[in-house]
Every structure is written in structure tokens, then in C-alpha cells.
Write a structure and sequence with these properties.
With about 190 residues, the protein is mainly α. The chain is built from 7 helices and no strands.
């Protein structure tokens, strides 16, 4: 007796009554953006705390890394809007992993034309600036995308919403507070 395994999932990986299945593609995209912002800012703040323990701390530079994630956030939002309905057929963990991987892959594909133009405009013997940065930041971007998308899926449930919204508000407030404290400290 031979068993055939169908690796192409066609039915939703979530229960039929799960609120994520009822969302529009833009509903998934903005929720994914908020999840990505929460996770990304948490990563930046943890990096800032570790930076304070170094011999030459530069908290402002570390806190400004949040701006570096803005183009990637746009790429992830577009991936969520375009592929969110297709991803729904998988289990949440698989959706999150696929989302993170596809988002990083899309960033690499979009970076190639910019890199070509930059090399033509200003040839550098070292070359590959943006692509090199993406290779170094690829794993953190993947993790941010995967965890943020997972948070977005969880945030539409009743229990998830009770935790997610206060968490997002706290992360944003803490980031603004750290940035303000750094600005006050730098000006004195």
C-alpha cells in the first residue's frame, strides 16, 4: 500500500471561524505593518540597551536604526497585501515563516536595480553596498517579518487584541521616551 502526500495545502490552516480568514488583503497588510513595527522597535531598543554597555555607546545611532527598517516595512506591507490571501491557506506558523522569507527575497530583488544604478553612477572597487547590508540584515529582517506577521494573525482574536494593542502602545511610548531622553541628553 502506497500513501501519497499532497504538499500543496488548499484548505485553510486556521479554523473556519478565525477572524484572520475574513480580513481583506489591506486589513491583513495594516495589521502586519503594526506587528512589524512592534517587533522592529523592540529589536532596536534591545540593541540600544546592549550598546549602553559598550566602551563607546552611541544610543542615538542605534535608536535611529528604526528608520533603516522603513523601506523593508514597505516591502513587507506590499507582500502582505499581495500574498496575504494566498498565505491564509497555511497554518499560522507556516504563514509567518513564508511571509518572512518572501519579504526578504523581495527586498533583495528590489535592491538589485538600485545597486546597479549606484555602481554605474559611482563605481566602487568594494561594491555591493546595499546588497551587502541586506545580507547582514537579512536574518533580523526575516525574524522581524515572521514574528510580526504571527503577531498580526494573533492580534485579530479576542485574547490577542487584549494583549497586542497595549503592547504596541507600550513599545511606541518606550521608544519615543528613549529617543526623547537621548535628544535631551545630547543637547545638554
Amino acid at each position: 500500500m502506497s500513501a501519497v502526500v499532497d504538499l500543496h495545502q488548499t484548505e485553510p490552516g486556521l479554523p473556519v471561524e478565525h477572524p484572520w480568514l475574513a480580513l481583506s488583503r489591506w486589513g491583513m497588510a495594516w495589521r502586519a505593518a503594526l506587528g512589524l513595527i512592534a517587533v522592529g522597535l523592540c529589536i532596536v531598543m534591545v540593541m540600544a540597551v546592549f550598546d549602553l554597555g559598550t566602551a563607546d555607546p552611541k544610543p542615538g545611532m542605534v535608536l535611529s536604526l528604526a528608520g533603516f527598517g522603513a523601506p523593508q516595512l514597505v516591502v513587507f506591507v506590499l507582500v502582505a497585501a499581495l500574498l496575504g490571501p494566498w498565505l491564509r491557506r497555511y497554518y499560522p506558523f507556516s504563514q509567518a515563516l513564508l511571509f518572512g522569507g518572501i519579504g526578504v527575497g523581495a527586498a533583495f530583488v528590489l535592491a538589485v536595480p538600485f545597486e546597479i544604478v549606484a555602481q554605474v553612477a559611482n563605481p566602487s572597487p568594494w561594491g555591493g553596498g546595499l546588497l551587502l547590508v541586506l545580507m547582514i540584515a537579512g536574518l533580523p529582517f526575516f525574524l522581524t517579518g515572521a514574528i510580526g506577521y504571527g503577531l498580526a494573525i494573533w492580534s485579530v482574536t479576542r485574547k490577542g487584541a487584549r494583549v497586542f494593542w497595549p503592547l504596541l502602545a507600550a513599545v511606541l511610548a518606550l521608544y519615543v521616551t528613549l529617543w526623547t531622553l537621548h535628544a535631551i541628553g545630547a543637547s545638554t
